Amino acid sequence: MTRIEMKESYLPTLLQMRMLVGFLGERAQCAWWPTAFYEASSKLFLEPVFSKTSRLAQYHGVLEAARRLHDEHLSVGSYHLFRLPEEVEQDLHATVQSSVGEELASQAPQSKEAALDALKRLAATGGTSSVGPTAVGSINDLDATDTLKAIAAAYLSAFTQDAKTYPYLVP
Questions:
Q1: Is the pLDDT of residue 96 over 80?
Q2: Closest to 68 measured CA to CA, from 123, 9, 25
Q3: Cα-based distances in Å from 128 to 31, 69, 110, 143
Q4: Residue 98 pLDDT more than 80?
Q5: Over 60: is that where the pLDDT of 166 sits?
Q6: Burial level of 41, CB count in 10 A (0-12/13-18/19+)?
């Protein structure tokens, strides 16, 4: 694998984590934000308006809701799962629209339990539980497996303990 391929191999994991945390944060699951983009009924609302891009509209709707909540609790300039450097955001946007994004969307969990199980597979074992803002590493290590596992573990812990955490990466 070339350096570029290695660097981009973390994008599907990052995208899957965004989708899982986005789903779990919606009002029907853990109600961290008041959206319902991943509910079945949202397709009826989105498809007439975004006929070719309803999946992308779902993704960006949840992304924005989650981003706002995280930004309210974290300092300006810190990065988090829903606010990453512009180059990474562009890569993720392209990944959502690719066959990888379609595959992840088709495998999207339909229940809170299934989403928690999927998040558990991405998480580090024995992750520490924390509430509120939690530093999990440096943005330079975003493509490191340990960093991604730490982010997933923080969310998993929060969702299972009915608490809110905001894992962030320092610049």
A1: yes
A2: 25
A3: 22, 22, 27, 21
A4: yes
A5: yes
A6: exposed
Residue 162 region by backbone torsions, left for phi larger than 0, else alpha for psi between -120 and 50, else beta:
left
| Cα angle for residues 58, 114, 127 (degrees, 5° grid) | 100
- The amino acid occupying position 93 is H
| Alpha-carbon dihedral angle through residues 61, 63, 66, 72, given to the nearest 10 degrees | -100
Count: domains in the chain: 1
Helix (H) or strand (E) holding 15: helix 11-25
Tell the burial category of 168 from Cβ atoms under 10 Å away from its Cβ (0-12, 13-18, 19+): buried
Q: Give the mean pLDDT of the chain.
A: 88
Residues 6+ apart with CB under 8 A from 45: none
Q: What range does the domain containing 112 cover?
A: 3-169
